[in-house]
């Protein structure tokens, strides 16, 4: 792609690109240090030379004085400046009348925290017991409401309907004789019919 504004106008410039890249890497490999100073330049991922800018990264020990630029403060000077900037907290701290914000918690405060935690645990336990009691009552009410349904007699035909030879473990009157008027079609064939096996079922 030669021009992004003309995506359909494409050219095959691979030979030129190969020659240019080869010359570039040969120059970077065999050129003198004076030709390309790594103190003031950077190489991108494709070995393109870019100006470094400030701060300058020296490959060797920096001479004293340098180029007159301001030197960065050392760690010791920073720590000393921070130590000098710390002032004493206001108030009479010798007699202990004004404890700082980072003072340790007194035993009285610790006991208060323990008592408050125990009270909170007791209230949570009571709430849990109340929920369990409500759940037990709800289950009891549900059982009482479902009890009449359990006592309803089954309306399915009994096994005594029709010819006893019609029934076995897989074919029962409860499965085959309902629904009327012809029962379950999967139970019948030329020998076993609804009229023979379920004569007492109303049609």
TrEMBL record:
Q: Which domain of life is it from?
A: Eukaryota
PANTHER family listed in its UniProt record: ENDOPLASMIC RETICULUM MANNOSYL-OLIGOSACCHARIDE 1,2-ALPHA-MANNOSIDASE, MANNOSYL-OLIGOSACCHARIDE ALPHA-1,2-MANNOSIDASE-RELATED
User: Which UniProt key words apply to this protein?
Assistant: Calcium, Disulfide bond, Hydrolase, Metal-binding
The UniProt entry, under InterPro entries, shows: 6hp_glycosidase-like_sf (IPR012341), Glyco_hydro_47 (IPR001382), Glycosyl_Hydrolase_47 (IPR050749), Seven-hairpin_glycosidases (IPR036026)
Q: Does the keyword Aminoacyl-tRNA synthetase apply?
A: no
Q: Which GO terms describe its molecular function?
A: calcium ion binding; mannosyl-oligosaccharide 1,2-alpha-mannosidase activity
As for family, the record states: Belongs to the glycosyl hydrolase 47 family.
Q: Matching Pfam families, A to Z?
A: Glyco_hydro_47
What protein does this entry describe?
mannosyl-oligosaccharide 1,2-alpha-mannosidase
The record lists the catalysed reaction(s) as: N(4)-(alpha-D-Man-(1->2)-alpha-D-Man-(1->2)-alpha-D-Man-(1->3)-[alpha-D-Man-(1->2)-alpha-D-Man-(1->3)-[alpha-D-Man-(1->2)-alpha-D-Man-(1->6)]-alpha-D-Man-(1->6)]-beta-D-Man-(1->4)-beta-D-GlcNAc-(1->4)-beta-D-GlcNAc)-L-asparaginyl-[protein] (N-glucan mannose isomer 9A1,2,3B1,2,3) + 4 H2O = N(4)-(alpha-D-Man-(1->3)-[alpha-D-Man-(1->3)-[alpha-D-Man-(1->6)]-alpha-D-Man-(1->6)]-beta-D-Man-(1->4)-beta-D-GlcNAc-(1->4)-beta-D-GlcNAc)-L-asparaginyl-[protein] (N-glucan mannose isomer 5A1,2) + 4 beta-D-mannose; N(4)-(alpha-D-Man-(1->2)-alpha-D-Man-(1->2)-alpha-D-Man-(1->3)-[alpha-D-Man-(1->3)-[alpha-D-Man-(1->2)-alpha-D-Man-(1->6)]-alpha-D-Man-(1->6)]-beta-D-Man-(1->4)-beta-D-GlcNAc-(1->4)-beta-D-GlcNAc)-L-asparaginyl-[protein] (N-glucan mannose isomer 8A1,2,3B1,3) + 3 H2O = N(4)-(alpha-D-Man-(1->3)-[alpha-D-Man-(1->3)-[alpha-D-Man-(1->6)]-alpha-D-Man-(1->6)]-beta-D-Man-(1->4)-beta-D-GlcNAc-(1->4)-beta-D-GlcNAc)-L-asparaginyl-[protein] (N-glucan mannose isomer 5A1,2) + 3 beta-D-mannose
- GO BP terms, alphabetized: carbohydrate metabolic process
Query: Looking at the record, which segments are called Disordered?
Result: 51-110
Q: Which cofactor does it need?
A: Ca(2+)
What class does this enzyme belong to in the EC scheme? hydrolase
Biased composition range(s): Polar residues: 71-82
Tell me its EC number(s), please: 3.2.1.113
Source organism of this protein record: Noctiluca scintillans (Sea sparkle)
What pathway, per the record? Answer: Protein modification; protein glycosylation
Question: Does Metal-binding appear among the keywords?
Answer: yes
Listed GO CC annotations: endoplasmic reticulum; membrane
Read off the SUPFAM superfamilies from this record. Answer: Seven-hairpin glycosidases
Instruction: Give me the residues that bind Ca(2+), please.
Output: 45
